[in-house]
Amino acid sequence: MSDEDDDADLFRSAVGPVRRLRDAAPPPSAPKPKPRARMAERDEAAAREEFRHALDATLAEAGDVLSYRRDALPPRTLQRLKRGEIAVQDELDLHGADVRAAEALVRAFLAHAREHDAGCVRIIHGKGLHGGSAPFTGRDMPILKNLVDRLLRQRADVLAFHSAPPAQGGTGAVLVLLAPRRLRPA
């Protein structure tokens, strides 16, 4: 007998009788990954890309004319505004303002005009020749001009707006026709 056999016999005598254990259940496997909505992710990515292209297409360049009219307003009234035939009752100059300040100034200015029943106002945004890089596009754009365009289109009290005639600022300013106070939503 070898030393290994002696050691095995010695171990068995020390331990005593044994019985075989049942096979243990296998250890739990790693959890399966949560399902992902891959189609929704692709749709969202496609929508973001489409938004970027749409935003790029709708941004005004430095020399572009801004123009907007609500359907309820006759086209002839927009033509009068375009020619500068409607008297301007108040004016806001945004030269030197950054985007956040300009947005706050426009909102406060229009609220003030509303309180004082101004029917037509002028907002001077500048031509944007020294604008910055526009979001998503990386192109130099007239930032304040595009901000004013977006803000005015969203307001319920704005009936129409158009870039001013050359004598009143041209494409560096916009004439805004406001709804009469009694017709404005509260």
Continuous helix count: 5
The helix content, as a percent range, equals 25-40%
Low-confidence stretches: none
| CATH architectural label of the domain at 66-180 | 2-Layer Sandwich
SS-based structural class? alpha+beta
Mean pLDDT level: 84
CATH topology of the domain at 66-180: Ribosomal Protein S8, Chain: A, domain 1
Q: What CATH first level of the domain at 66-180 would be assigned?
A: Alpha Beta
| Straight-line N-to-C gap | 105 Å
This entry's quaternary arrangement is single chain
SSE pattern: HHEHEHEEEHEE
Q: Which word captures the global form?
A: rod-shaped
How big is the Rg?
36 Å
Total strands: the figure is: 7
User: What proportion of the residues form beta strands (DSSP E)?
Assistant: 15-25%
Largest sheet: 5 strands, mixed
Looking across the biggest beta sheet, what order are the strands in? 1-6-7-3-2
Protein name: Smr/MutS family protein
Organism: Agrilutibacter terrestris
InterPro entries: Smr_dom, Smr_dom_sf
Pfam families: Smr
Structure, described:
By secondary structure, the protein is an alpha+beta fold. It has a domain at 66-180: Ribosomal Protein S8, Chain: A, domain 1. The chain has helices at residues 3-15, 38-58, 75-82, 99-115, 143-154; strands at residues 67-69, 90-93, 120-124, 132-133, 140-141, 158-163, 173-178. The strands form two sheets. The protein has a five-stranded mixed β-sheet with strand order 1-6-7-3-2, with helices on both faces. This is Smr/MutS family protein. Residues 1-45 are annotated as: Disordered. One of its GO terms (molecular function) is DNA endonuclease activity. InterPro entries: Smr_dom, Smr_dom_sf.
